[in-house]
Amino acid sequence: MQNEQPHDQQGDRQNKAVQRAARIGIVVTSDRASAGIYQDLGGPAIRDTMRAYLRSPWTDVYCLINDDQATIERTLRSLCDDEHCDLIVTTGGTGPAARDVTPEATTAVCQKMMPGFGELMRATSLLYVPTAILSRQTAGIRGQSLIINLPGKPKSIRECLDAVFPAVPYCLDLIGAAYLETHDDVIKTFRPKSK
Q: Which residues pair with residue 10 across a beta bridge?
């Protein structure tokens, strides 16, 4: 009987996660786009990709901010702690330039880093451009939120998401976030079979 209570509680948490719409934070870090010098293309590319992938309900919280580490950290903390986003996807600020500080901000706010995401994204991008080795994107977990850094170009955003997203729903399951279901004809996700 003692084993039934934790199992029931886990089932209740999973049912609640399945019932609610996921919240996805979309963070665009760009000095020029946030100043209105040019149009943001990264945010819409992320939103379009999520629309193509997901068949379960979701809403997004969109943030267009400058490449300032304190601002990025504050935004990520707010999306995790106040907005309760299950998944946060950033674009921009992952290169070697002085103002590219998104990975540093992500590392500063996360309790656990998930280096496999960055490794796979770089390996994928290297199939297309040799400068992929200059990209420093990473991923990490804060509370019940998964944060993933993406490059800035829309084409690269989709290529990187196509590579890592098959593991994202199960990662969210493991941290108690919302349950994501995808269109299998667009992106196939992996969840281990129940014992």
A: none
In angstroms, the CA 134 to CA 6 distance is 46
* Dihedrals phi, psi of 13, to nearest 5 degrees: -60, -45
CA distance 36 to 56: 33
Q: Give the pLDDT confidence of 64-84 residue by residue, as tens digits.
A: 999 999 999 999 999 999 999
- How many CB atoms neighbour CB 193 within 10 A? 4
Question: Of the CATH numbers 3.40.980.10, 3.40.50.2300, 3.30.499.10, 3.40.50.2000, which one belongs to the domain with range 4-174?
Answer: 3.40.980.10
- Distance in angstroms (rounded) separating the CA atoms of residues 124 and 67: 25
Residue 54 has what DSSP assignment? B
**Cross-strand pairs, 141:** 112, 146
Boundaries of every domain in the chain? 4-174
Q: Which residues pair with 88 in a beta bridge?
A: 25, 147
Structure-block tokens of residue 46: 């992320």
As a whole number of angstroms, the distance between CA 172 and CA 116 comes to 15
3-state SS string for 120-175: HHHHHHCCCCHHHHHCCCCEEEECCEEEEEECCCHHHHHHHHHHHHHHHHHHHHHC
The pLDDT, as a whole number, for residue 50 is: 98
